Every structure is written in structure tokens, then in C-alpha cells.
Amino acid sequence: MLTQMIITSMAATFLLPKLPYAPDALEPVISKETIEYHHGKHLQAYVNTLNTLVEGAEYATMNLEEIVCNAPAGPLFNNAGQVLNHTLYFEQFRPVEAGGAAAPTGKLDEAIRAAFGSFEDFQKKMAAASTGLFGSGWVWLAQNAQGGLEIVQCPNAGNPVTKGLVPLLGFDVWEHAYYVDYRNRRADHIAALWQIVDWEVVAARMK
Predict the structure, then answer these.
(1) Are 103 and 119 in contact (CB under 8 A)?
(2) Which of 10, 125, 151, 185 has a Cα-to-Cα distance from 138 of 20 to 30 A?
(3) Is the pLDDT of residue 3 over 50?
């Protein structure tokens, strides 16, 4: 599985994943207010809608990744995709004061350097992809079948798993992810996120 927080279906019921930190723990990068709306309301709504859509359907026995990979375009894919995306998103952060590596190390660092030249160049390319994605969606650092890394832009509820890739790090560029704290300054939001990335979590997602 991609992550310890990935939600599986039991009796066609998906649950809101618990945050691995307090709602105010990511301040000042992400405020408590944003977490309460983003996790407590937006993600909860996706979970509720997903449960309604899978009830009594062929997808009721599938886990989240299977639904995203098999559902046709439309409400089921959108809501399952958003539950998967947000689960990965919220798990990949750590409180600023928690410490930890400010940059990837080991195998992940080597893979980033091989794909992008340097960690700094990777950050620039990830930022450019995030600010350059028109409208709402996600930008992912993903691993391909050969073990190499690439940056993938996914509009709306898209996730790299539909392309046979493993999502490692995801930046949410829907406005509800940053508008309370940054208004329309998407670039400032993306620049701040590097302070709270938990690189151990990201590295653990590699195959």
C-alpha cells in the first residue's frame, strides 16, 4: 500500500483519516483554520459522498487505490481520487518544530539528483509545475516502473496511480488548500510547504 493512512473499504464504509499531528501543528505554514476546513470539512465531504456512491455497487469491496484505477470519469472517480489525494497529502507533513531532515536523504536523494540534477532544481521544477497548472488539481513527484522519478500534473482529482506510477509527494493547488492563509498567492504557499515536508514519509512510499 502507498501509505499507512490509505483507507480500505469495510462493509462499504470509508472513514476520515486521522491527522498525525494537532490541527495547529503546521502553523505558520498551514493554519489551524485551513486544516479545520480542508481536512474537517472538504475531506469529510469527499468521504461521505464516496460512501454513498459505493454503497451496493461493484466498487464496495475495492480499496481506495482500486476504485481510483477502475472507476470511470465522473463523481465516483472524483470523490475517491480526492480521498486518496488528501490522505497522502495530510500524511506527508510534520510540524515545523518537530525537526527532521530539511531535504531528502539516502535513496530518495539519489533518485531526485538522478532525475533533476539537484534537490534545488527539483524544487524549482515542482514549483513551476504547481504554479503553472491551470485551475484546480494536484502536482506530484512520482516513481515510475523503472524506479525513476518524474513530476506529474493532475487536473482536478487526478492521481498518478492511474498512469501506473507511485505517488510520493503531492502538492494540492485547489484554492481551498491555501486561500485562507495566502489568498491568491499560490506560489507563496508552494514555497512555504518545503518547511513541513516529512521526507521519511515520502521516502517510505518508494518501491
Answers:
(1) yes
(2) 10
(3) no
Task: Tell me the C-alpha to C-alpha distance, in Å, between residue 45 and each of 9, 28, 41, 62, 138.
Answer: 17, 25, 6, 20, 18
| 93-125 per-position pLDDT tens digit | 999 888 777 899 999 999 999 999 999 999 999
In 10 A of CB 167, how many CB atoms?
26
Residue 100: name the closest of 200, 25, 202, 183 by CA: 200
Residues 178-207 pLDDT 10s: 999 999 999 999 999 999 999 999 999 999
The CATH H-level (homologous superfamily) assignment of domain 32-96 is Fe,Mn superoxide dismutase (SOD) domain (1.10.287.990)
Among 167, 137, 176, 157, CA closest to 39: 176
**Residue 186 in contact with residue 153, Cβ under 8 Å?**
no
